[in-house]
Amino acid sequence: MQMLIALMFILAYLLGSIPSGLIVGKAAKGIDIREHGSGNLGATNAFRTLGVKSRIYCDYC
C-alpha cells in the first residue's frame, strides 16, 4: 500500500511537470506562448494568446 502511494506521488509530480501550455500552443497555432502575452506558460496566458479552447485543454491535460 505504501509503495502504491509513493508511485502515485511520483506519477503526479511527473505529470505536473509537463508544460501543457507550451504543447497546446505549438499544436494549436505553431507558436511558443512564452514569446507572447505575459511570457508565462500557464493556462491564463494560453487563454489570452490562443483563446478559450486552449485554456480548457491546458486545464484538463
Automatic annotation (TrEMBL):
Keywords (A to Z) from UniProt: Cell membrane, Lipid biosynthesis, Lipid metabolism, Membrane, Phospholipid biosynthesis, Phospholipid metabolism, Transferase, Transmembrane, Transmembrane helix
Highest rank taxon of the organism: Bacteria
A biological process from GO: phospholipid biosynthetic process
UniProt keyword Hydrolase present: no
Entry GO CC: plasma membrane
InterPro entries: G3P_acylTferase_PlsY
SMART domains: G3P_acyltransf (SM01207)
GO molecular function: acyl-phosphate glycerol-3-phosphate acyltransferase activity
Coiled-coil regions, chain positions: none
PANTHER family, per database record: GLYCEROL-3-PHOSPHATE ACYLTRANSFERASE-RELATED, INNER MEMBRANE PROTEIN YGIH
Protein name: Glycerol-3-phosphate acyltransferase
